Amino acid sequence: MGVDLREAARSGLDPAGASGYDPHPPRVGFFTDTSVCIGCKACEVACKEWNAVPEDGLTFTGMSYDNTMGLGADTWRHVAFVEQPRRLGRQETNLADAELSAAITAQAAARTPVSLGMPESRPPDGHVASVRDMDFRWLMASDVCKHCTHAACLDVCPTGSLFRTEFGTVVVQEDVCNGCGYCVPACPYGVIDQRKDDGRVWKCTLCYDRLSVGQEPACAKSCPTDSIQFGELDELRERAEKRVRQLHDQGVADARLYGHDPADGVGGAGAFFLLLDEPEVYGLPPDPVVTTRDLPAMWRRVGVAAAGLLVGLVGVTIIGGG
Fold first, then answer.
1. How far is residue 276's CA from residue 54's CA, in Å, rounded to a whole number?
2. Cα distance from N-terminal residue to C-terminal residue, the chain
3. Alpha carbons 66 and 75: distance in angstroms, whole number
4. Which residues pair with 202 in a beta bridge?
């Protein structure tokens, strides 16, 4: 199916249509605007509650307020807290929309900004510093399965446990999964993972059960700042490009989109992001490529070699018989 899907994508056919859904609803997905993420983890909690995802550890990792460190079988939504020294160059922090009146702006400018005691990168000494003296910034982002257009996990699954839905998303049927684990190394993002107690794989389903009855996914429903936006993928891409232009106009030159381009190595993601730094800073691969990309060419070479071997054997048999 993966090979057919790549050929279909070149002709403009969407994943659901290439998978045999005719007719089908528009493709949906997530646009995550990290510039307005406040790290509240409401999405993590909502995901766990709705999908009955087990507890994934309440240990102190030492990575800021991040207690899970990445996506996994028991972490379908992961909020990253990246702490950076603020004065690194090429970094801007003026992310607020300039919609306040001149009077309010002047009044705010006359005040002395102070720290509210948030953690700093230097040891605490009892001194309450000015906000301008604080020497780091947080980059927060809620990560999730990308629901790729060219999904390698689908290509390698031998049981059909992984399937494409009519919404263009990728879902695991846990009652069909045999725990072979082929899909785990196939994912270029390291999203899909096996649960240790039974060996089966788990990941975000984009709340397929909620989509089927016209509801939005639990994480997007719970996000208080609309950092996680759900909708038709084409509309989300237009909205994301508009948001990037807005941030650029405000002087945030590092704002960029990640995973939105249908011409990238996975054919465009069903869940894409607005980032404020390089993808590697957020733990994302800079140039992901579907890991089964070369399978068609490999099988063609195998076929040619097998045909050559067969011809040779036939020739040897004829000569030997003569």
1. 31
2. 46
3. 12
4. 193
Q: How far apart are CA 176 and CA 137, in angstroms?
A: 44
As a residue count, the chain comes to 322
At 29, list the tokens.
């997905």
Q: Which amino acid, residue 87?
A: R
Cβ contacts of residue 252 below 8 Å, gap of 6+? Answer: 35, 92, 94, 95, 276
Task: Tell me the C-alpha distance between 183 and 149, whole Å.
Answer: 15
| pTM over cut 0.85 | no
Please state the three-class secondary structure of the chain as a single string.
CHHHHHHHHHCCCCHHHHCCCCCCCCCEEEEEEHHHCCCCCHHHHHHHHHHCCCCCCCCCCCECCECCCCCECCECCEEEEEEEECCCCCCCCCCCCCCCCHHHHHHHHCCCCECCCCCCCCCCCCCCCEHHHCCEEEEEEEECCCCCCCCHHHHHCCCCCEEECCCCCEEECCCCCCCCCCHHHHCCCCCCEECCCCCCEECCCCCHHHHCCCCCCHHHHHCCCCCEEEEEHHHHHHHHHHHHHHHHHCCCCCCEEECCCCCCECCCCCEEEEECCCHHHHCCCCCCECCCCCHHHHHHHHHHHHHHHHHHHHHHHHHHHC
- Residue tagged 């780091």 (tokens): 136
Distance of CA 261 to the CA centre of its chain: 13
Q: Which residues contact 306 (CB under 8 A, 6 or more apart)?
A: none
Per residue in 18-65, pLDDT tens? 888 989 999 999 999 999 999 999 999 999 999 999 988 777 777 778
pLDDT tens figures, 116-143: 555 544 445 555 454 444 567 789 999 9
Q: Are 42 and 220 in contact (CB under 8 A)?
A: no
Measure the CA angle with vertex 259, ends 258 and 262; round to 5°. 130
Residue matched to tokens 């510039």 = 35
